[in-house]
Write a structure and sequence with these properties.
330 residues; three-stranded antiparallel β-sheet; two-stranded parallel sheet; 14 helices
Length: 330
């Protein structure tokens, strides 16, 4: 637990959220994978979904556990409580470090000596004054494994991240076309990226998570890109019901899938890509142009007549880049 008696810009002040708070109880839930999640990166016909998103939405899972614990705390103490899981401007990682759960590693995420890099965080704010735990110190030393593992060089320096280069940001939060300079580096990553987390040497002490709702579903552990490329909105919602993947929507997800297909070097996927050239969503059409140019440049030139009737400026730009041969190799 971490008591925020002072206001620190690097941690934020919970009193800005709730003036009556006297202590912040930070909790971590292990979601460690059973195997190295980077193994799927060698399977070009499959999509790589981040470990945390291969089953139920962790927000729902953790909030349920927090409410149960907070309810018991309130019942025993009579003090008011509030729970948060990414639902308030709380600086969870610095707070968790102050609470002794772990330290912020050079990849900016929390690292635990017991659970490695695989921890979800949640917070209970309480009006009950509690004795704070000792903070954890940094154990990264001279190691830079996480920094060197990043496919897009998203770390300008240790403990700093440029989100604009991060594959997790690009595949999840970024709403527009994926910048061309990062597409080849994405490989088959279609939702998130675990590379910097998985590279951490402290994971040798980690154990597989025990929460069944967070264990990988068989159909999401290594889904076929060919199957994903065929998803309409209804099928997408059905497949990802209850999953955090659902929140990015079918169109943004298919954008990611088509980038992965373009990186697959699998010519058998060309007919599926051609179908997506006529997709109702501009962001899907644009990614399909890039993918087709990578897989079959000659077929792409034959399809270039579509550019004359294209209403979207970003998609028109993709056709022009294709005509100029501006494909990022890799």
């Amino acid at each position: 637990m971490a008591w925020m008696a002072e206001t620190e810009a690097r941690r934020g002040d919970p009193r800005m959220i709730w003036p009556d708070v006297r202590a912040v109880v930070m909790l971590g839930l292990n979601y460690g994978p059973e195997t190295d999640p980077r193994a799927i990166l060698a399977k070009a016909d499959r999509g790589a979904i981040s470990v945390y998103a291969q089953n139920r939405d962790y927000h729902d899972v953790i909030k349920g556990k927090l409410k149960l614990l907070a309810g018991r705390l309130a019942a025993r103490s009579g003090a008011e409580v509030k729970v948060f899981v990414d639902t308030a401007p709380l600086m969870e990682k610095p707070l968790a470090a102050a609470a002794g759960i772990g330290w912020q590693g050079k990849h900016t995420n929390l690292v635990s000596r017991k659970f490695g890099s695989w921890l979800f965080l949640g917070a209970i704010l309480t009006a009950l004054p509690l004795k704070p735990d000792e903070p954890e110190r940094d154990h990264c030393g001279s190691c830079r494994a996480c920094l060197d593992a990043c496919p897009t060089a998203a770390f300008p320096a240790p403990y700093q991240i440029d989100a604009r280069r991060c594959i997790s940001y690009l595949t999840i939060e970024h709403a527009g076309p994926i910048p061309p300079e990062f597409r080849a580096a994405m490989g088959n990553r279609i939702y998130g990226c675990d590379d910097c987390l998985a590279a951490c040497p402290w994971n040798k002490f980690a154990q597989a998570g025990a929460e069944m709702k967070l264990k990988a579903r068989a159909d999401l552990a290594a889904p076929r890109l060919a199957d994903l490329a065929r998803l309409d909105d209804a099928a997408f919602r059905a497949l990802f019901s209850g999953s955090p993947v659902k929140r990015i929507g079918r169109d943004r997800f298919l954008r990611n899938v088509l980038i992965a297909i373009g990186n697959s070097k699998d010519a058998s996927l060309v007919p599926l890509v051609v179908e997506r050239l006529g997709d109702p969503a501009a962001i899907v059409r644009g990614a399909a142009i890039w993918a087709l140019g990578r897989l079959d440049p000659e077929r792409a030139r034959l399809e270039a007549h579509r550019a004359s009737g294209e209403p979207d400026a970003d998609v028109q730009r993709e056709w022009r880049q294709l005509a100029r041969g501006d494909l990022v190799s890799g």
